[in-house]
Every structure is written in C-alpha cells, then in structure tokens.
C-alpha cells in the first residue's frame, strides 16, 4: 500500500466532509474589462452542503471547466469551501468529452448504435490515460485536503477511479461514491475492454459505500461485480432516491419573473376555438440523447393524426436546452429535434395555432412557468438515473398534471403507480398515453397529483445528502490500513 503521503500534508486542520465532482457549485466568466464574474449553481449537493452548515469543515473539490474557471484558479480567486482543480484543458476534454460523456455515459444509457460503435482503438486508450490523470488529480487533492478519518463523497461516472486511488493514498478516510446515472446491464457493460471494466469496478470498490438512485441500478452494479470481479468485497451498496426540493420550487415558481414568463407562454399557447385555454403537454430537458425528445415529438404527431378533434385545442410545449455541444452527436440530435418539431408545425399549424412550441435557449424561470401551466408532463427517456422533471412538474403545476412516464426512468420506481407508464421506444403507445392523460377526469388527476407530489418529495436534497453522510460515518472501519 502506498504511503500516507496525503495525511502528512493535510495537517490537523483538514476538511471533515469533502465532496468531489466534475462540475462544481460555482463557475467564472471573464468580463470584457478583464474582471471575473462568478455564477453559483444549485442542485442536490449544494442544498446538502448548506444543510450541514458553514462550520462543518466542508470542502468541495471540482474541476475548472472553462477558460474563466482556469483564469480564476490562476488569479487565486475562489470561494471559501471550494477548491477548483486547474486540470489542463486538453486532459480535461479527453476525460470529460472523450471518456465520461462518450463512453461511460453511453454504456450506462445504452446509447450505442452497435453495428458501428463503440470502437476501442489506440485513440480510446490515449483518452483513457487522460481519464486516469484527471481522476488522479482529484484523488491527490482530496488526500491533501482531508482531515484524519474525514468523510469523502465522490460523485458520478467522471470519477470512478477516485475511490480506489484515494484509498491507496489515505486508508484512514471514509469514502463514498454516488452514481447519478443508471448502471449498465452486465451484457452491455461487457462491451468495454476487460482491463477497463476491471479498473472501473475496482476503482469504485475502493469506496466503503456506493450509492445509487434506485435498487435497479444498484443491482446492475452488483451483477457486474459478480460477473467481472471478485464481487463487492467489503463495500456496502445503498439506495438513495433523490427527491425534488419542494420548498424551494414552490417559492421560486411564484416569483415575478416566472409570472411574467407565464404571460408570454399563455400567448404562445393561445386559446381553443371555444375560447378556453388550450391544454399544454409540457416537457423540459437538456437536449440529451437519452431523453428521447425526438420520439416524444413523433408520439405527439401520431396523437394529432389519430385525434383530429384535438387540433387547435392542445399545444406541445417542449424546452430542449443545449447540453454537451462539444460532441457532434449532440449537435446533430438538437438539429433533429428542431427538424421534427418544424415538420409537425408545417403539417398541422393553422393561422392561430402552433402545435409545437419549441425553445432551445435555457431559461429556468420559463421552465417553471411551463411547469405551472402543464396539464400533462411528458417524461419518456430511453433510460435515466432518476429524472427530476418527473417529480417537479406535478409539484409545481397550478392545476395538477397527468404524468406520462417512461418505465426506464429511475423515477418510475417511485412514481409509476400514479403515472401513465410507457415503453419509450413505443411511439404508438406513447401517443395513446398522451390521449389518456389529456382526457383524465379532473378528480382523478388531482388525486394522482397529490400522491405523485408526496412520492416526489419523500427525500428532499438536503436529507438525501445527510442520509448518505450519516450512513458513511456509521460504517465500522473494516479495512486494513
Ligand atoms: C446529469 C446527470 C448527472 C451528470 C450531469 C452532468 O445531471 O444526471 O449524472 O453528472 O448530468 O452534466 P454536465 O452538464 O456536467 O455534463
């Protein structure tokens, strides 16, 4: 075992709780006058860390992602409680785009078109070396910063090798890893080269505890370990189903900017021939290959084909925000979504009715406005770790909504009983589900919404985080140091 080099460096005042993730809670942009502008993000980890309070000795280790971030690191600008790693841009690009998003994300979401891909060639090996370097930079920083026996919570597929590397450097730490994605089934994980499979699994098994969003993904991971390694060993596996942040969303969705966006959206949606407001089928996603936005549009087109009586009475409000645009396949997917939406509008639009209202520019206030106006939420991913939109729309919608939900989303395991469940590949079934959702009796819609909201808020982000931290701290130290 390697030396406790990190322990020697970190001294007595190291952090007691550490979080490690690729994307951190803050990002920087260089303004025209050369000054740096900081933007804070949200999400489950941010709420979790604020729940343990400023005196808890917490540190968030993340990567510089942009030129602005790198500039901030070089100028020594930063927020207390955050350490941003200045990983060279080319190494980061190979690790993040080349491996995490193009290989690991694809494996866990079953996204390959297998006749032609994946191809594990010399270029792949070159990128893999960058993934190792990037993981090692995190492991070293964590080893330097952690107090004796501190708890370290490593996040996601970007950092699969960190637990194993960190354990070598600092056997005294309690190491957790959480996967925000699904986990691949054995046969699909088996596409990866044998040594890479072993490295990924053993890297994660360096943790004391591994967390997943649903039992299904936890079981898939365990099955991969049984098949490809000597099993889980002493690593514990737990399930923590991240819920929606009800308090925050309810308050935020009633702020003036949201009300303003609602007025704009109501205009775009318009009124039915009888003067009533048109029904809104709402979806909000990153433009992500796994979100299945294109088949959602095809299902809506089928629904319009099958139900002329709904023409002029319904609008599909689809927000598809840019994501991972460095990858050509994501850019192409965005273009395809726009093409199908335009085709539907060309075929059906009338002077006063635009059947699909598609927006591709990110606007959080407008997303909340759409949630509030939703009659139906369409959440039909091919595969998804959880999908928080499925939890958020019922919670925020003014009138309650019917939820059309893919059985391949993690959220299905918590919300499936009160959703209209679809096979995401079955466009005809999804079209029927849209019809069923639109014609659901108001009392039933209200009843279901109530139960959806209860399930959606069962484990709010702060509790989700604290639960993991506590589970990690309660583990008996059971590894030889
Ligand atoms: C989604 C996934 C997370 C992932 C994140 C990365 O939220 O659920 O598992 O970490 O995307 O997104 P990014 O924009 O940083 O690539």
Topology:
Layout: H1 5-10, E1 15-21, E2 26-30, E3 36-40, H2 44-52, E4 58-63, H3 67-75, E5 82-85, H4 89-109, H5 122-145, E6 146-155, H6 162-169, E7 174-178, H7 186-189, H8 194-205, E8 209-212, H9 215-228, E9 236-239, H10 246-252, H11 256-269, E10 279-286, H12 293-306, E11 314-321, H13 328-348, E12 356-359, H14 364-373, E13 376-379, H15 389-396, E14 402-406, H16 412-415, E15 420-422, H17 427-438, H18 442-456, H19 461-474
Parallel strand pairs: 1-4, 1-6, 4-5, 6-7, 7-8, 8-9, 10-11, 10-13, 11-12, 13-14, 14-15
Antiparallel strand pairs: 2-3
Helix pairs in contact: 2-19, 4-5, 5-6, 6-8, 11-14, 12-13, 12-17, 15-18
Tell me what the structure shows:
With 481 residues, the chain is α/β, with parallel strands linked by helices. It folds into two domains: 4-242 and 462-473, 3-Layer(aba) Sandwich (Rossmann fold); 246-458, Glycogen Phosphorylase B (Rossmann fold, 3-Layer(aba) Sandwich), CATH 3.40.50. The protein is 47% helix and 17% strand. It has helices spanning 5-10, 44-52, 67-75, 89-109, 122-145, 162-169, 186-189, 194-205, 215-228, 246-252, 256-269, 293-306, 328-348, 364-373, 389-396, 412-415, 427-438, 442-456, 461-474; strands spanning 15-21, 26-30, 36-40, 58-63, 82-85, 146-155, 174-178, 209-212, 236-239, 279-286, 314-321, 356-359, 376-379, 402-406, 420-422. Strands 5-4-1-6-7-8-9 form a seven-stranded parallel sheet, with helices on both faces. Strands 12-11-10-13-14-15 form a six-stranded parallel sheet, sandwiched between helices. 6-O-phosphono-alpha-D-glucopyranose (G6P) binds next to loops.
């Amino acid at each position: 075992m390697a030396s406790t080099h990190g322990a020697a460096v970190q001294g007595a005042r190291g952090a007691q709780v550490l979080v490690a993730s690729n994307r951190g809670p803050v990002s920087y942009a260089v303004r025209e006058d050369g000054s740096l502008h900081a933007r804070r993000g949200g999400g489950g980890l941010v709420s979790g860390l604020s729940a343990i309070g400023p005196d808890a000795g917490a540190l968030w280790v993340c990567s510089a992602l942009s030129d602005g971030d790198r500039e901030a690191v070089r100028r020594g600008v930063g927020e207390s409680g955050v350490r941003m790693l200045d990983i060279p841009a080319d190494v980061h690009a190979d690790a993040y785009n080349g491996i995490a998003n193009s290989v690991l994300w694809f494996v866990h979401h079953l996204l390959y078109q297998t006749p032609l891909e994946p191809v594990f060639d010399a270029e792949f090996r070159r990128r893999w070396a960058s993934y190792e370097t990037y993981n090692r930079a995190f492991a070293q920083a964590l080893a330097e910063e952690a107090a004796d026996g501190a708890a370290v919570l490593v996040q996601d597929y970007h950092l699969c090798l960190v637990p194993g590397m960190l354990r070598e450097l600092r056997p005294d730490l309690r190491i957790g890893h959480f996967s925000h994605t699904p986990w691949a089934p054995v046969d699909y994980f088996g596409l990866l080269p044998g040594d890479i499979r072993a490295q990924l699994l053993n890297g994660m098994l360096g943790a004391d505890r591994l967390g997943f969003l649903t039992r299904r993904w936890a079981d898939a991971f365990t099955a991969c370990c049984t098949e490809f390694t000597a099993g889980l060993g002493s690593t514990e596996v737990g399930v923590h189903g991240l819920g929606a942040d009800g308090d925050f969303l309810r308050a935020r969705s009633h702020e003036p900017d949201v009300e303003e966006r609602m007025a704009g959206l109501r205009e775009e949606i318009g009124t039915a021939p009888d003067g009533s407001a048109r029904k809104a089928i709402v979806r909000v996603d990153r433009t992500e290959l796994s979100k299945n936005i294109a088949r959602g549009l095809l299902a809506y087109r089928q629904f319009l084909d099958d139900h002329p009586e709904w023409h002029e009475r319904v609008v599909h409000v689809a927000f598809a925000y840019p994501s991972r645009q460095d990858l050509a396949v994501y850019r192409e997917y965005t273009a395809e979504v726009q093409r199908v939406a335009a085709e539907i509008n060309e075929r059906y639009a009338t002077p006063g009715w635009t059947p699909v209202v598609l927006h591709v520019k990110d606007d959080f206030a407008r997303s909340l406005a759409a949630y509030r106006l939703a009659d139906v939420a369409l959440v039909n991913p091919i595969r998804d770790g959880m999908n928080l939109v499925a939890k958020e729309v019922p919670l925020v919608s003014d009138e309650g909504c019917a939820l059309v939900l893919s059985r391949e989303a993690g959220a299905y395991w918590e919300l499936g009983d009160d959703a209209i469940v679809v096979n995401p590949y079955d466009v005809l079934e999804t079209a029927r589900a849209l019809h069923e959702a639109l014609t659901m009796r108001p009392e039933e819609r209200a009843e279901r919404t109530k139960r959806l909201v209860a399930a959606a808020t069962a484990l709010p982000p702060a509790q989700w985080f604290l639960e993991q931290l506590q589970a990690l701290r309660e583990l008996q130290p059971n590894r030889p140091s």
